[in-house]
Fold:
Amino acid sequence: MEPKPKPYSRAKAIEIRTPIPGPVSQELLKRRAEHVPRGPFNTVPIFAARAEGALLTDVDGNTLIDFAGAIGTLNVGHCPPKVVEALKEQLERYLHPSFHVVMYESYVALAEKLNAITPGAHAKKTFFLSTGAEAVENAVKIARKFTGRRAVISFERGFHGRTYMAMSLTSKVKPYKHGFGPFAPDTYKMPYPYYYRAPMGMTPEELDEYILGKFSDFFLSEVPGEEVAAVIMEPIQGEGGFVIPSARFVQGVKAVCEKYGILLIADEVQTGFGRTGTMFAMEQFGVVPDLMTMSKSIAAGLPLSAVTGRADIMDAPGVGEIGGTYGGSPLGCVAALKVIEMMEEERLPERAVAIGAAVSGRFVRLQQELGGEGPIGDVRTLGAMSAIELVKDSVTKEPDKELTARVLQEAHRRGLIVMSAGLYGNVIRILSPLVITDEQLDEGLDVLEQSLRTCIG
Structure:
């Protein structure tokens, strides 16, 4: 048995011992190419050996700072000790009796907790699945069952998952939908405000009013409002480029839903659990959704997702009509309870605000330094959900996907794990764990800034 690794304790977090990827990772990459299909994408061509907090060490001994957090899954960091201890205790009791066969208290306790902390003072109920896409699929099933309607509206640039209903609601064609049709019927898309790319001369207020006004035309030209079961929206678009709407727009969508008896589903898979500065992003907009989907950071990296909603809506499906064999596993439930405890006791949503301020402060200053013709078109953040959009020209705002790819590759080479996003692939997104230290955050931002400066020459 290998000895337990010592805690990370260096002044400088990043330590690069070999090129990225190193020789051991290169050998594993050969095995991956032979035995794993090319479809599952990989951001950094390395293999993990251990991780803690916001740091990850690969099989070649290189230690990197993690600004991706498993695509927003690790808000409480890699291997949080409280979660690990809870998992060890659970492992000694039982692994998986399946809630549909023999129930266990942690499932009910987590449902109680989510019913209490999600937006709204009304009676709520919660049930669990394994993935964000499953949560979306089941939220749509519940909405259709409750309303007796079929149509579902999502938004342009939205991402809701890779299963068929979730993929049908998703907007970006490549890589998510190309060649996988036909898609689920009775799904429709509306525009979503992108203030940085608003038509010339249009203010945010005017853009919101224009898009909300299009609902009236949509209900005349596509499907009547009284036949729409639900509108599903990300409070902040994740894969779409960390596009942040105004409270006015989100409240306007809710008003449209109330007018026509449509349910509002908030997809908080990426925005939930402290990322935006509150436990859930919908709190930022003063809107209470009818249903909410959650996953990613709910359980510190274990596969778990949830649908929470008004009790009367959630009770619409009959016995056996919703669920899944692995949904709400005991390991996932005890992990999630500890995650929420950490969020509350360590005030991690507040920490998210400080992280976002550091990121935006750094890159707004760099944007100003580089001047009007510089590549940084927009810097946007809500809490620690931060994005830097790169463009070829600040006037035309032509996306610079190629520069974005070069910056990420350079950052990876220097020891920073970071990802892109956006319809045009030109947005650098930052999803560092909320437990990252100030020193690690500054070091990671230094690497990202240096990488950008290197790539623009």
Remarks:
- The mean pLDDT is 95.
- The two ends are 48 Å apart (CA to CA).
- Residues 23-37+45-79+348-456 form a domain with the Aspartate Aminotransferase, domain 1 fold (CATH 3.90.1150.10).
- Residues 105 and 330 are 9 Å apart (CA to CA).
